[in-house]
Design brief:
Order of helices and strands: EHEHEHEHEHHEEEEHEHHEEH
Radius of gyration: 20 Å
CATH class of the largest domain: Alpha Beta
Number of domains: 2
Number of strands: 12
Number of helices: 10
CATH superfamily of the largest domain: Response regulator
CATH architecture of the largest domain: 3-Layer(aba) Sandwich
Helix content: 25-40%
Strand order of the largest sheet: 2-1-3-4-5
Distance between the termini: 21 Å
Strand content: 15-25%
Shape: elongated
Structural class: alpha/beta
CATH topology of the largest domain: Rossmann fold
């Protein structure tokens, strides 16, 4: 998962960040909240982990929720035991707080628990993801559209699966690159745009199939479900009408 960590003490941020990375997260480190706020307006994250500052907590939430990551989790740590202030922040949209000083292991565990609760599609134990007419088989990296196999490269499959698992969220290009390619360093390239175009065409991700994959200007992409039950709402649509080219088997893995 992609985390933004704001810690006032530069000497300690690395210890916490390293522990979170060992747990499998991509961690972006911030010492200056102004830099974090600028990044949050163009980049998406799964969770913001912020050292507590009671004076700015509410304004921080407003800023973070105004960017592409408006639906992500926000957790404050090293909080003072001030019931009134903490209750107000929770009421303003924070997901959790951790009274400090707090140990690294507890922070990592609390972060994991919140992410599992907020993103069940990403942590489910099943090998399948069903969103009719789409069915993903994670074991064989195969996808069926209306029961028909569609050939995708490995990266196309991973990108499509990540978008479906994050249905309804605006995901920045850097976020997509990090999740699928393991690095956001290629954010200036057309890698994401090219792959999004391919899976939109191959999977027929258009309103006729009940889903819309659209660009979010200046940020990235958003996959939305616009028909709750494809089989009921669009009974007359056939695979060929959606522009889906069925092809059994897989093509060679590629970027």
């Amino acid at each position: 998962m992609r985390l933004a960590l704001l810690y006032a003490e530069s000497a300690r941020i690395e210890t916490l960040a390293s522990a979170l990375e060992v747990a499998g997260h991509h961690v972006h480190r911030y010492i200056d909240p102004r830099v974090l706020f600028r990044e949050a307006q163009r980049e998406s994250f799964d969770l913001f982990l912020l050292e507590w500052d009671a004076r700015d907590a509410r304004s921080t939430l407003r800023v973070l929720h105004s960017g592409p990551g408006m639906d992500c989790s926000v957790v404050f740590f090293n909080c003072r035991n001030d019931e009134g202030a903490l209750a107000e922040v929770l009421g303003s949209g924070a997901d959790d707080f951790i009274v400090g000083p707090v140990g690294v292991r507890e922070v990592v565990a609390r972060v994991g628990a919140i992410l599992r609760r907020r993103n069940p599609r990403l942590f489910g134990s099943t090998n399948f993801l069903d969103m009719p007419p789409y069915r993903f088989d994670m074991t064989s990296k195969a996808i069926l559209v209306g029961g028909t196999p569609v050939a995708l490269t490995d990266k196309e499959f991973e990108l499509a699966l990540f978008l479906f698992r994050n249905l309804g969220r605006t995901l920045s290009r850097g976020h997509l690159l990090e999740a699928v390619w393991g690095s956001a360093l290629l954010a200036v390239s057309r890698t994401v745009d090219t792959h999004v175009s391919r899976i939109r065409r191959k999977l027929g991700l258009r309103p006729e199939t009940g889903f819309r994959l659209s660009a979010a200007y200046g940020n990235g992409y958003r996959l939305e479900r616009i028909v709750d039950d494809w089989s009921i709402e669009t009974p007359g649509i056939r695979r060929q009408d959606c522009g889906i080219a069925g092809a059994a088997g897989r093509v060679s893995p590629g970027a």
